[in-house]
Design a protein that fits this description.
2 strands, 72% helix, 600 residues, mainly alpha
Length: 600
């Protein structure tokens, strides 16, 4: 077959050929993930990270930068992630399409970087491209891309791949400047999400293969000490952040023996999902009863057998040991030995570790089929087609909250979080009566779950049973140390106490909420209403001013205007009322809402 001159020009050098192959990866990634641009925000963490986060919503400015670098909000210290979300809000506002598309673009960029880093290190175009294609199209990664709040995962991966590429550059001609570039990129990765904390360990694997650096292990290990110092600093900050957010589970709830058993079983379950990615869910709960000992023993034996196998074959097939220990090692921070949250495992945790398995698969199959390249190429195309179809289907489950959580409830057993979020999705659609059974199921599955109690309390309050709601809120306060949840419980309890006519206890409840979280808008609003009702107009004016400092709002300006009028400040009252008129789309409806609130 005669090759056309244009094709000869296109593939006249490895760089041009790989540019085209990289472009193909980008096009495939953008095409398969395009539906997410029509998806809404998810009712799980997207509110805390974007839609209800006043710092992020304010956009990218100096106050946001200061907050991002000093905040332990959401039990994390990841300033670059916060700034990334703030930049999205600056550009796209609250339109979810833009936020989703940035995630997709970052995933596409990670795919191309993975291809480039592997090719530069190994010199193998086909195998490197296949690893990147698996990374781009495997359904396990849908969660990290289709979930806006998981920006931290794909952003940290971006910096890790850049740091890995910079390390290859450094290894060819070591210098302080090149090492500093590696360290700076690694630090950026840690500031996006500490899941990349094992990077120094990965570099030792990279030294073994594909770089095959000739220095002794001791010298190579010593070379990683400054990077290990960064890892240690990140670990300290992460623990402090998780303790501040009450995110670390106690040994009473999850004993060490249970964590070790779950870790072994989860490693094998992750391997299973790499080979057969079905029944994927945002939440995989711990089993309701004790883990079966035989499962933990069998999983441990399988892991040991795999480890012995790859070590035995490691001298000849170094990629097997590197891929296997990449998988094992990078999962350690997320495997649950330090239990954060209530999940037994999570798809998002596989984003980095599965690269190791993909390397083992692609290099191993290529060696096995070295004399059957056509067969391997056809099989690879079929495999990628099947994975693409599965990924496209998995993306569809994220199309709306009701679909997502209905699927999660269907494919997992006993997930109180999935039940809670399904109830929340039904509430958002106005289906309150349909939502309540899911909240009750969540409370039955986990009697110590504060979220289901909050939802049940809110329902009782809307049904006109304030005392029942107060009792539920009191239970929430005994269940959690999370300042966000406690502030919500105090704030909502304040409104229930107002409904009972107990103004003084309502004020105390609102004050407790703002002491915990000073920017709790509903608490400041309730405090203003309570002070206004009791005739303390100067304090009411101050409280409404706090509301407006958090969010310029037509209702806030209207209530401020009334309090200013009652406080003998007619000019300021007129100015506030004019502002309320400018912001309001329906002033008559605004007036009725305000009068109803002030009448209670």
């Amino acid at each position: 077959m005669r090759v056309s001159p244009s094709s000869q020009t296109l593939f006249s050098s490895p760089e041009k050929r790989n540019f085209v192959l990289g472009l193909l990866l980008v096009v495939a990634t953008l095409a398969i993930y395009n539906p997410v641009t029509h998806h809404p925000f998810v009712n799980f963490d997207d509110d805390r990270y974007v839609t209800e986060n006043i710092h992020v919503r304010a956009g990218l400015h100096w106050d946001t930068v200061k907050w991002a670098f000093t905040s332990f909000d959401e039990a994390n210290w990841h300033p670059l992630t916060w700034l990334s979300h703030a930049l999205d809000c600056q550009v796209f506002g609250q339109n979810p399409a833009g936020h989703h598309y940035v995630n997709v673009l970052l995933h596409a960029l990670n795919t191309v970087l993975l291809f480039w880093v592997l090719w530069r290190a190994t010199g193998s175009t086909g195998r490197s491209w296949m690893v990147a294609a698996l990374f781009a199209l495997h359904p396990i990664n849908v969660e990290s891309v289709a979930w806006v709040a998981e920006r931290k995962t794909i952003l940290s991966m971006l910096f890790l791949l850049l740091a890995l590429g910079a390390y290859g550059w450094y290894s060819r001609r070591p210098s302080i400047c090149r090492y500093a570039a590696v360290a700076a990129l690694f630090a950026c990765g840690l500031m996006a999400k500490p899941m990349v904390i094992t990077f120094p360990f990965l570099l030792l694997l990279w030294d073994y293969w594909p770089l095959q650096r000739a220095q002794s292990f001791a010298k190579l290990a010593l070379e990683k000490v400054p990077l290990l110092a960064l890892s240690a600093a990140s670990a300290v900050l992460t623990v402090k952040a998780q303790q501040a957010g009450a995110a670390i589970a106690t040994m009473v709830k999850y004993p060490l023996s249970m964590r070790i058993e779950n870790a072994a079983i989860s490693y094998v379950r992750y391997m299973g999902k790499a080979m057969w990615p079905s029944h994927l869910s945002p939440i995989y709960p711990y089993p309701a009863g004790a883990l079966k000992a035989w499962q933990a023993i069998a999983a441990t034996l399988l892991l040991l057998a795999m480890t012995i196998l790859v070590c035995t074959a490691g001298r000849k097939f170094r990629y097997l040991a590197v891929g296997w220990f990449w998988f094992l090692g990078t999962l350690v921070p997320m495997i649950g030995l330090v239990q954060v949250g209530s999940q037994a495992m999570a798809d998002r945790y596989a984003y980095l570790p599965f690269v190791g398995l993909f390397v083992m698969i692609c290099w191993g199959l290529a060696d096995l089929a070295s004399d059957r390249t056509v067969t391997l190429a056809v099989a690879s195309c079929l495999g990628l087609t099947v994975l693409s179809a599965a990924t496209f289907r998995q993306i569809g489950y994220w199309s709306d909250n009701l679909t997502l959580w209905s699927h999660a409830v269907a494919v997992t057993h006993g997930s109180f979080i999935a039940e809670n979020n399904l109830g929340g999705a039904l509430l958002d659609e106005g289906k309150e009566e349909e939502a309540m059974p899911h909240f009750r199921t969540a409370a039955a599955l986990n009697p110590s779950d504060p979220m289901s109690r909050l939802n049940l309390a809110a329902f009782a309050q809307r049904q006109g049973h304030p005392q029942e709601a107060i009792d539920q809120y009191a239970q929430v306060l005994t269940m959690t140390r999370d300042p966000r949840l406690r502030a919500t419980a105090f704030s909502d309890m304040g409104y229930a106490l107002r409904d009972l006519g107990d103004s003084e206890h309502a004020k105390a409840s609102f004050r407790a909420a703002v002491n915990l979280r000073p920017r709790t808008l509903r608490a400041w609003l309730g405090l203003g209403l309570a002070e206004q009702k009791s005739g303390n107009y100067p304090e009411a004016v101050k409280d409404y001013a706090q509301v407006l400092a958090i969010q310029p709002w037509d209702l806030g300006y209207f209530l401020l205007a009334r309090a200013l009028q009652q406080n003998g400040q007619p000019d300021a009252a007129r100015a506030a009322m004019d502002q309320a008129r400018r912001l309001s789309e329906n002033f008559d409806e605004l007036q009725r809402t305000a009068e109803s609130l002030m009448a209670k």
